[in-house]
Amino acid sequence: MKAIVRRALVGLVCGAASSVFLFSVVKSVELGLALGALLGIAQTFAFFDLERGSTIDRAMTCAALGLALWTVINVILIPMAAGQSPQWTAQEMRGLFPALMGWLLFAFSLGAVTQAVRRISEHFLGPELPRQRPSAPAQTTRVVILGGGFAGVTTAEHLEKQFRDDPTVSFTLVSETNSWLFTPMLVEVATSGLEPTDISTPLRTTLKRTRILRSKVTSIDLEARGSVQLSEEGPPKRAGL
Fold first, then answer.
1. pLDDT digits (tens, 9 = 90+) for 103-113
2. Which of 42, 75, 148, 193 has the CA that lies 20 to 30 A from 27?
């Protein structure tokens, strides 16, 4: 509740301060102050997600609303309140150009002043909302599959389907090659009956969630169940289980 009141007060003050640009637009100081205060309160709640953005970003975002407010109020509502039709023609809208500039200056000033005042209030009064403590990361189960042949790839495919919606399970497949080779058809390739690409499929195109690690297994720590010793170019690596 305190955060809502504080936010509304900031919008009220900033809207009233920026309403000097509306005095000539609405032809009334009282109406300009009231309209500026109401719009200031509204924009503090409408642009809640921009509180961490830069001042110029918020000012430009608010300035874009100036055109919409000018269209609704000066082009449509004020003429209709006077018993006239909306001023849609090019000549009539050119006559309202000074009012458009007033709205743009008001909206730009409102966005910039509001962002500056909110940062000042956070510095002296603290954040509007209490910061939530980051939740502890979920424990991840790591599955390591050794070998990229029929058994390894089929196992990875079935595990991906079984744990499709479970982000806490990750898969790593260790293979000496980065493709799945259908070895019984090698004779067909040797006799030019098939192309090499017909019997070889890249593992990464078959497995979507599995990390492919191209390496050779040299040892497995069964007692600790913690890692697999891998051999590849460079220093030895370990894949956690």
1. 888 888 888 88
2. 42
